[in-house]
């Protein structure tokens, strides 16, 4: 791995060397989870060069539909033009920089700037300038002054990603083998997914990596953090239930997945408990037999993409009164706002062709279980905020965290999917892989 070099203060350089020195031994310094100088470097080296999840295509199905999304502090209007093409346009008027889009979502054929009235078509072209001739003369070329598109915009199975780096590798290359795991949800139906309304959003005083790691690798926390739900009978009684299954990471990419199964001998409704009619369609829509069979045996699936996207697809009792289990799917963006501060974007999704009763049931399951007011959600955010506080404290920041779980565990040679898999979910292997990629990008 490259040594720390150019453009970094000697303080930060020493700190990164500490991370580098301890990582393979499972030691991660606390300060990386809340440090203003490191956050600036993350902005430049990671978030300015990575594929960041922006939206699902079902959020903007019709011409003129738009949503506002963010890469770092840059607002982008993600809009479907009259030509059906989706674009991401920087929400910054080319005259003096005012925002031209004043709502988080809607439908518009044009965006008119509230400052001096420059007007842009929803494909970004500037088409109206008040008093154009009088103010700017006869040679003013509106073609030069359209809204600025994001440097790169690509999608995978309806998931739209943007990248600020024009030289970035393709999204396909960026994702690599994690696509096999993404497809476990994107290919469950040949019709694909749709969002159930706009995302819930809320701000948490924590670091994006702390939120992310729960979804990437930390099955271990469920038995304690969510203990009240076990006691209420919403989660299974077996306190070790989250350790069964496989944990998989994609070397060199930073991505990972947790494919959680059931304790030996336990009876699972096949295929996360999705209705029988959907199971039939899944049989033919999955690209491979291995994916179908993996999906059938899975109880909880989590996939996390480097740097800040996760999804969570569990089967769970939505509350303590409901007798049955209902699967739900949530997409997450851990949007960094500053050191020790994130905004969570959380969507509920379902198969487009799922029966109406199931769409409603899964939506309610999401709200009760994992929305901003969901029972599980609040357990996690409370804890993440205290960890981030301690990670910046004068004494605590000098401690190292223990990422040694599963350090001596051998990979599972029989796992049918790509990546490096372990037959036990209680391991930090995914996190160590994430931090390798994280360091590599910070040092590049
Ligand atoms: S800043 Fe938009 S028209 Fe002047
Ligand atoms: Fe949790």
Produce the secondary structure layout:
Elements: H1 10-23, E1 27-29, H2 36-47, E2 52-56, E3 65-71, E4 74-80, E5 86-90, E6 105-107, E7 110-112, E8 119-121, E9 126-128, H3 132-136, E10 152-156, E11 159-163, H4 171-175, H5 179-186, E12 193-195, E13 200-204, H6 208-216, H7 222-225, H8 227-232, E14 245-249, E15 256-260, H9 276-285, H10 289-296, E16 300-305, E17 309-316, E18 326-327, E19 329-338, E20 341-351, H11 356-370, H12 375-391, E21 400-402, E22 420-422, H13 429-443
Antiparallel strand pairs: 1-21, 2-11, 3-4, 3-6, 4-5, 7-8, 8-9, 10-11, 12-20, 13-20, 14-15, 14-22, 15-16, 16-17, 17-18, 17-19, 19-20
Helix pairs in contact: 1-13, 2-13, 5-10
Bound molecules: FE2/S2 (inorganic) cluster (FES) and fe (ii) ion.
FE2/S2 (inorganic) cluster binds next to loops.
Which tags fit this structure?
444 residues; alpha+beta; 10-stranded antiparallel β-sheet; 4-stranded antiparallel β-sheet; 13 helices; 22 strands; binds FE2/S2 (inorganic) cluster; binds fe (ii) ion
What does this structure look like?
With 444 residues, the chain is of the alpha+beta class. The protein is 29% helix and 25% strand. The strands form 5 sheets. Strands 12, 13, 14, 15, 16, 17, 18, 19, 20 and 22 form a 10-stranded antiparallel beta sheet that branches. It has a 4-stranded antiparallel beta sheet with strand order 5-4-3-6, with no helix packed on it. A 3-stranded antiparallel beta sheet has the order 2-11-10, with no helix packed on it. A hairpin with a 5-residue loop joins strand 4 (74-80) and strand 5. The chain is globular, with a radius of gyration of 23 Å. The chain starts with 9 loop residues before the first helix and ends with a helix. It binds FE2/S2 (inorganic) cluster and fe (ii) ion.
């Amino acid at each position: 791995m490259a040594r720390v070099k150019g453009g970094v203060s000697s303080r930060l350089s020493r700190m990164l060397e500490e991370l580098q020195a301890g990582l393979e031994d499972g030691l991660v310094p606390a300060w990386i989870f809340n440090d203003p100088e490191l956050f600036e470097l993350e902005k430049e080296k990671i978030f300015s060069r990575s594929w960041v999840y922006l939206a699902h295509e079902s959020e903007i199905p019709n011409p003129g539909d738009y949503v506002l999304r963010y890469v770092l502090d840059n607002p982008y209007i993600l809009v479907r033009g009259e030509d059906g093409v989706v674009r991401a346009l920087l929400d910054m008027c080319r005259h003096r920089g005012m925002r031209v889009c004043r709502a988080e979502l809607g439908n518009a054929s044009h965006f008119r700037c509230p400052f001096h009235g420059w007007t842009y078509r929803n494909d970004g072209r500037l088409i109206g300038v008040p008093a154009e001739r009088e103010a700017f003369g006869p040679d003013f070329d509106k073609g030069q002054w359209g809204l600025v598109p994001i440097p790169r915009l690509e999608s995978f199975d309806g998931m739209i990603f943007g990248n600020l780096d024009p030289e970035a590798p393709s999204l396909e290359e960026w994702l690599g083998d994690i696509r096999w795991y993404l497809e476990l949800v994107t290919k469950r139906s040949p019709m694909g997914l749709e969002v159930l309304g706009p995302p819930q959003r809320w701000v948490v005083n924590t670091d994006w990596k702390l939120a992310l790691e729960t979804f990437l690798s930390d099955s271990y926390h469920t038995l304690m953090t969510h203990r009240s739900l076990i006691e209420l009978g919403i989660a299974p009684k077996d306190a070790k239930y989250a350790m069964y299954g496989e944990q998989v990471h994609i070397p060199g990419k930073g991505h990972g997945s947790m494919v959680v199964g059931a304790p030996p001998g336990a009876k699972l409704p096949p295929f996360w408990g999705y209705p029988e009619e959907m199971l039939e369609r899944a049989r033919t829509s999955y690209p491979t037999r291995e994916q179908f069979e993996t999906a059938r045996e899975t109880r909880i699936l989590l996939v996390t993409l480097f740097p800040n996207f996760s999804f969570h697809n569990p089967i769970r009792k939505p509350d303590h009164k409901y007798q049955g289990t209902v699967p739900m799917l949530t997409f997450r963006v851990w949007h960094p706002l500053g050191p020790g501060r994130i905004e969570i974007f959380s969507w509920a999704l379902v198969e487009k062709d799922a029966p109406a009763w199931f769409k409603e049931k899964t939506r309610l399951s999401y709200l009760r279980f994992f929305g901003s007011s969901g029972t599980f959600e609040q357990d996690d955010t409370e804890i993440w905020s205290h960890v981030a506080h301690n990670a910046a404290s004068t004494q605590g920041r000098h401690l190292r965290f223990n990422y040694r779980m599963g350090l001596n565990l051998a990979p599972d040679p029989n796992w049918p999917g790509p990546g490096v898999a372990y037959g036990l979910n209680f391991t930090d292997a995914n996190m160590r892989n994430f931090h390798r990629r994280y360091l590599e990008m910070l040092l590049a």
